[in-house]
Amino acid sequence: MRAPYNIHRICAFLVGIVLFAAGMLKLMDPVGAGLVFTDYCKFFGLRWLIPAAKVIATGLALFETVLGCALISGVFPRLTAILTSATLGLFTLLTVVLVIFNPEMDCGCFGEIVHLTHAQSLLKNIVLCLLTAVAFLPAKDYNEPRPGKYAAFAIAILSAVLFMNHSWQRTPAVEFTAFRPGSLLQAAAGVDAGLRLHTYFIYEKDGEEGAFDLEKLPDSTWTFVRTEELAVESGRGRQIPVLSISDAEGEYCDERAAVGEVMTLSAYAPEKLKQEEWLTLATAMQILEAEGFDPLLLVPSRDAVPAYLADEALTADYKTLVTLNRANGGYTYISDGEIIRKWSLSHAPSPEDLQAMKAKHPEEVMMSSSSRGRLTFQAILLYSLALMVLL
Length: 391
What we know:
The chain is an alpha+beta fold. The protein has helices at residues 5-27, 30-43, 53-73, 77-101, 118-136, 147-169, 186-189, 275-290, 307-310, 318-324, 351-358, 362-390, and strands at 196-205, 208-212, 223-232, 238-239, 245-246, 261-266, 294-299, 313-316, 330-335, 338-344.
């Protein structure tokens, strides 16, 4: 006997929420999704797919998002049941293999925000499979949704596609890596790299001070005073990132990124930059220096750097550069060793933007940017969910 309709919808809704959230988190960081897909390609011997890893990973994330939207809104029930069962079945088989062989890699289920062990990922997939079975078995007489649900589904998909396009051209709206805004570089922290830091923003109101996290800032009635970094040994807090860079002579010069107003211009795949993009970077370095910033050109190797920039280039680890800035040709503003804000090359700050930033306290720049990105992502998620549930 088929379960009551409301039980069926609740189960489908729960599975849809998980798939929708997982897909959107990966769409927010296409480069990170591509890195995870690259690890899968290496593990399963599919190295010929690696050049297209970012595109394929983004396409799979979009498919996951679409499937989640279909489950939440209840549209195309038969097709959704087939695709969901096949997708979760494949995910479960993959995680069984990962549990058996236990490779040193992340499942990438929820991007950078949640890191699951292979066993935890398998358990999650088994639960989703059971929920899917309750939602769609026996396979007969599916209830067709109201016409408005199809409109809500289409609008949610359009929102996801626009968000994907935004993420493809810019840095992630919200970051969860060790190099996220608010992190203090190890060269400036003055503590052991194995420790962790927790950043507190101190605000004042009516003569009293309060400490807040970047994710939970107070309203406009509070006045920003300062920031404080607390080094802790427990798993709480954020890991101190190490930006290790070296000059043309091979000498380490990590302190260059940790002192003063610094703007790094990083390219983790310099061979992919076009000639006009290199000229843009060269011009940007001159503008940044004129505006009072210390520009640092960071690449994993000088081999692909044009001769007119080779002497200026500093080298760093490839993975470090990908984590520092997801854009291949990205700007990262660092003030006295604290990461403030990031841009992609195609959306770089103008001279007027640089002047405006110099006129503000670095913490104000960071909080304004981080809050805007976080609110944008939350608005897209909540708007899409509300639309699919209520319409």
